[in-house]
Amino acid sequence: MGNWVVNHWFSVLFLAVWFGLNVFLFVDAFLKYEKADKYYYTRKILGSTLACARASALCLNFNSMLILLPVCRNLLSFLRGTCSFCSRTLRKQLDHNLTFHKLVAYMICLHTAIHIIAHLFNFDCYSRSRQATDGSLASILSGLSHDEKKGGSWLNPIHPHITPTVYIFTVTFDMVLSSVNSNLFLFLLVKK
């Protein structure tokens, strides 16, 4: 075990930093949307699902930025050969580029699932607040309009006469299918 730590310390450190950045980005964005005053009324309608959707979206953006770096041949060749600061330890870790590429792909799949599930709960919360007649703050906020002539809501995009439930489920189903197809393609690409 001691030899393994000596031989792979840089990989463990790099993966710990990458995982730590993912956790930090998720928690930071979650707390930002969960505590910020400008999202107070949206939180009254959606609850914590707003923060979950936005935090997972930030992690998706971060990992989508990273996924191609481990397979850029020119960058890897540059780091291996022409850089004088590239030590033997770093060169050895560059050989594990496909493993990191796969880990990033798995993290993208995880955050995609979290993002989709949070949006499904968002649709449910929007629909429930629009249909509520109990006088709760969420139902009152869903009925607020910035222009009484148009009848558009500031906070709730679901309108009883404009957006029927079938349309919402169709859009949601299409969003889920397109995400599953792209992630399945990514998964199959990673498997090769």
Mean pLDDT: 75
- Widest sheet: strand ordering: 1-2
Strand content: under 5%
Task: State Rg.
Answer: 22 Å
Helix content: over 70%
> What is the global morphology?
elongated
State the low-pLDDT regions, or none: none
**What is the rounded distance between the termini?**
30 Å
Tally of strands: 2
Order of helices and strands: HHHHHHHHEEH
Count of structural domains: 1
| Backbone structural class | mainly alpha
- Major sheet description: 2 strands, antiparallel
Q: How many separate helices?
A: 9
Protein name: NADPH oxidase 1
GO cellular component, one term: NADPH oxidase complex
GO biological process, one term: superoxide anion generation
GO molecular function, one term: superoxide-generating NAD(P)H oxidase activity
Please tag this protein with its features.
single chain; 192 residues; RBOH/FRE; transmembrane helix; NADPH oxidase 1; Cyt_b245_heavy_chain; mainly alpha
Short description:
The protein contains nine helices and two strands; from the N terminus they run ααααααααββα. By secondary structure, the chain is mainly α.
Descriptive account of the structure:
The chain has 192 residues and is mostly helical. The chain has one domain (9-130, 157-191). The protein has 9 helices and 2 strands; from the N terminus they run ααααααααββα. It has helices at residues 2-7, 9-35, 40-46, 49-66, 73-82, 88-94, 97-131, 137-143, 165-191, and strands at residues 145-147, 152-153. It has a two-stranded antiparallel sheet. β1 and β2 form a beta hairpin.
